[in-house]
Specification:
Layout (H helix, E strand, L loop, with lengths): L14 H9 L7 H5 L9 H31 L7 H37 L14 H6 L7 H14 L2
Helix pairs in contact: 3-4
Length: about 160
Amino acid sequence: MSSLAPTQTPAKADPKLANAWKTKAPKDLTDAEVLAMPESEYMKAVQLEFFKHRLSTLRNDILRSAGETTEHLREDTLLVPDPADRATIEEEHALELRARDRERKLLKKVEQVLLLIDAGEYGWCEETGEPIGIGRLLARPTATLSLEAQQRREMKQKMFGD
């Protein structure tokens, strides 16, 4: 009996996923299909279009949510005689406005990233010039730094403050 362990063959990517980008429209690709794309296709037309569609959808969702908030705040401005009810309504409004403020900041990032896509600079770390990586961009499409660069920045902020 041999003492050598059997060699493991690396798991191959599903060919259906790896080649889906060739036949599907970029907006119809799934995250798994984009992840399975060959490295040679990194931030070429298909991936740029995929992320542009994803970010445009996010932008539209944020804008729609802002419109709904405006309508909701207008509806709730009726006079409420009970002070407790009034306080509850005002607290709900404050929470909703805080959420919209976070979305406003995200919207600004989305707009900036859409400009990067149009300039052909999306997907590359703004500090090092290295690829950010598909996995990171799928998780955070507004990322402009590689994971390592982001970690260095956060470490500096932690050590020296903002």
